[in-house]
Every structure is written in C-alpha cells, then in structure tokens.
Amino acid sequence: MAQKKVLGEYLTPAKLARELGESPRTLWRGHQRRVGPPRVRVGRFRFYMRQAVEAWLVTREESGAQPRQLMG
Questions:
Q1: Quick check: 63 pLDDT over 80?
Q2: 66-72 long-range contacts, Cβ below 8 Å, gap at least 24?
Q3: DSSP 46-64
C-alpha cells in the first residue's frame, strides 16, 4: 500500500506559480492585495491547497471579451 504524504494536496508557491504560468512574486503580491488564492502558513512556509485554488479560480471567471491579468 502506498504511503499518503501529509502535504500531498498542497502546493508550494513555486509549484503553483509554474502551474498558473505566473511567478512566485505575483502570488505574493496577490496575497498582499488580498486578491490571490487562499494559502496556509506552517511556520515560515506557505502552501496552497489545490482544491482551494481551484475554487478561487472559479470565482475569478469572467464573461465577455475583455481579458484581464490573473491577479488583476
């Protein structure tokens, strides 16, 4: 039986940034502006839960032809 990792569903800022095509600094700025995805802090480390990021992305959906920046 395969062991389940404690942080298996959590992403580091670097990994999430790669998946979103953004930089870790963009994620940090989004957090500072309170417009980024929710994150968890464990000591000095930050993690993003994949399900929370997916839910956050749904709230960012737009209709219309005007494209906007991810953290816009």
A1: no
A2: 70/20, 70/21, 70/22, 70/26, 70/30, 71/22, 71/26, 71/27, 71/29, 71/30, 71/33, 71/35, 71/36, 72/35
A3: EEEEHHHHHHHHHHT---S
pTM: 0.75
CA angle 11, 69, 65 (to 5 degrees): 125
Q: Which tokens in the block code for residue 67?
A: 């494209």
Cβ–Cβ < 8 Å for 40, 46: yes
Q: Per-domain residue ranges for the chain?
A: 10-58
Q: What is the pLDDT of residues 10-38, one digit of tens each?
A: 999 999 999 999 999 999 999 999 999 99
**Which tokens belong to 23?**
């930089």
